[in-house]
Design brief:
Layout (H helix, E strand, L loop, with lengths): L38 E9 L2 E9 L8 E12 L6 H7 L6 E5 L3 H15 L13 E5 L14 H13 L18 E2 L2 E2 L1 E11 L2 E12 L25 E10 L5 H9 L1 H7 L7 E16 L17 H22 L14 H4 L4
Helix pairs in contact: 2-3, 4-6, 5-6
Protein name: D-aminopeptidase
Enzyme class: hydrolase
Family: Belongs to the peptidase S58 family.
């Protein structure tokens, strides 16, 4: 294997490495933030055996508890410990940002989300309903000392602040950052990846964007867009395990049922890169639309909501599949070397691509 190198940050994207997926064109940033209003922030912990973090995804920068975007969940394989998904599936809305972190830090991150919501809505749990924090996770144990329980509420709050206060709202750091710091994917270093597709409907421009936390795939089974398999220098004979979290955002007006249909196509993108959603892998997609929102204090009995003509929904299915596939490759290309707990490490895809 060639020496492990860290590529120029400007080139650490799948598309720059020649790994564009599908026929649809990306948005301006080729990121989930191409959907107007969506913001992403990270808090990264990198200290010896502690290699972990938190990533925050905000559908909009306002009060999410008061202004809830329509949302949906689809579970491809439920080997996971996320929280808040049951209520999203039942009620079809989000009322907090979505936090991503490691498996044993879900509770801590949920408490941070609750405090964040109460700070902006002092009536929570008293004069009005409680709040449903949504935290999704992957097990970064091989690279991170997960038993250290290193993630704190302050770290989760820092990821939220980073999302809200970033000077460049469209920028999304990818690779070994935030929740992706300690993740592995197909035997390589995994992490955070993102991609988007631009759509034209009734003459208007829309976007569908995806962000993934990639920590899945059987080593040696990674497929590139042209079908080539990427071998590992020292392949491991192990089952597919880990997890992948797929967050999808769009400004296309969809209802809860349509969103679930769209995000289910994340599975197509995951299959294209070589996954079959193994027994020990938690493969979960969550999606939201910024075009339909439900006011917490709405008093009208009948609410006007727009929805897509389903004769046009194949375009979104295609966009979801392509963006998920490219976002996973984005995480792999962007990942930088991490040496973590007990000296564990993973090779970086960027180091072996020239030889593939």
């Amino acid at each position: 294997m060639p020496p492990m190198t860290v590529p120029d940050p400007a080139a650490r994207r799948a598309r720059a490495a020649g790994l564009a997926c599908g026929r649809l064109k990306p948005g301006p940033q080729n990121a989930i933030t191409d959907v107007p209003g969506v913001r992403v922030g990270h808090c990264t912990l990198a200290d010896g055996g502690v290699q972990t973090g938190v990533t925050a995804v905000l559908p909009h920068s306002g009060n999410l508890y008061r202004d809830k975007p329509v949302a949906a969940v689809d579970v491809l394989n439920g080997f996971g410990k996320s929280t808040g998904l049951m209520q999203v599936e039942e009620l079809g809305v989000l009322e907090t940002p979505v936090l991503l972190t490691n498996t044993l830090s879900v509770g801590t991150a949920a408490t941070a989300l609750i405090r964040h919501a109460i700070a902006g809505n002092p009536d929570i749990g008293r004069a009005t309903a409680t709040v449903n924090p949504v935290v999704m996770e992957c097990n970064d144990g091989p690279l991170n000392d997960i038993q250290a329980l290193a993630v704190t509420e302050a770290d989760a709050a820092a990821a939220l602040t980073a999302a809200l206060e970033s000077p460049d709202a469209a920028a999304v750091a990818v690779g070994s950052v935030g929740a992706g710091r300690g993740m592995s994917c197909f035997g390589f270093k995994g992490g955070i990846g993102t991609a988007s597709r631009r759509l034209t409907l009734d003459g208007q421009r829309y976007h569908l964007g995806v962000l993934v936390l990639a920590n899945f795939g059987r080593p040696g089974e990674l497929r590139l867009p042209d079908g080539r398999r990427v071998p590992l220098p020292d392949p491991e004979d192990s089952p597919e395990k880990g997890s992948v979290i797929v967050i999808a955002a769009t400004d296309v007006p969809l209802d809860h049922r349509q969103l679930r249909r769209v995000i289910r196509r994340a599975g197509v993108g995951l299959a294209r890169v070589g996954s079959f959603w193994g027994h020990g892998s938690g493969d979960i997609a969550l999606g939201f639309t910024t075009a339909n929102r439900i006011g917490h204090d709405e008093t009208a009995a009948i609410l006007p909501l727009r929805m897509l003509n389903e004769r046009r929904i194949d375009l979104l299915f295609e966009a979801m599949a392509e963006a998920t596939q490219e976002a996973v490759l984005d995480a792999l290309v962007a990942a930088t070397p991490v040496t973590g707990w007990d000296g564990a490490s993973r090779p970086c895809l960027s180091a072996v691509l020239p030889a593939v």
